[in-house]
Amino acid sequence: MGVSTSSPEKGISVVTVDFPPVNALPVRGWFELAGAVRAAGRDADVRCVVLAAEGRGFNAGVDIKEIQAQGGPALAGANEGCAEAFAAVYECEVPVVAEVHGFCLGGGIGLVGNADAIVASDDATFGLPELDRGALGAATHLARLVPQHLMRALYYTSRTATAAELSTHGSVWRVVPRGELRAAALELAREIAAKDGRLIRLAKAAINGIDPVDVRRSYRFEQGFTFEASLSGVGDRIRDGFGKDGAQMGDHD
Question: What predicted TM-score, i.e. pTM, was given to this entire model?
C-alpha cells in the first residue's frame, strides 16, 4: 500500500498509487505521490511518466475520515499535500500521461487536469463532489478538461462526466476497455519516450511557459475558500454528515 515506481520499458516510469479501498489519499499519501513524480521527472533516463492506480478507481480525493478525526491540522495538511501533488504533475520535467480507470474524483481531477495527456478506460468517470464534502477547489483543473459553462454546471451540481464525454471535448486522448488500459497508456508513453530526451524536456518547459493560467496560484486561491468554509462552520457541518447515508467515495471503512 502506498506509492510505488516501476520502469516497464526504457524511458518510461510508472508511478502507481494504491491506498485501499478507494484511493482516498491521507495527507502523507499526497506528499509521497508528489515526491515520486518529481523523482521520476528528475531521472535523466526517463522521458515520460505514466500516473496510474490500483484498485477500484483512480482517485477518490482526500481521506475525509482523517480530516473528521483530526480537524484543522489535517485539513491544512490535505490542502498543502494536494497542492504539492498537483504541482509535481504539472512541473514534472517530462510529460505525464494519466492512466484513469473507474472513478476520478476531487483530488483526482487535480492530478489529471495537470497531466499532459489522459488515457481512460470506458468505465472512467470524472467529477468534483467538493460541495457535497464541505470543501472547494480544483475548479482550476476541471476547467482544463471541459468548457467553462460545463465546468460550472458540474461543479455546482457535483455531477460526473464519463470518459467518452470528456473525449468529445478533446481532453481524453483515448478511451479503451478496462483490460486494454495499461497497453494504451504505454503505447502513448512509448511514442513520447521515443523523442530526444533533452528536446522533450525543453518542449514540456516551453508548453508550461505559454500556459495562460498559473495553475498553482489559481488552485491555492481556491483553497482559501475551503478554509473560509471551515471557519464559518459550514464546511465542518457538511463533512460531519459525509458517508452517514451509506458508503461514499473518499470515506474509509
Answer: 0.93
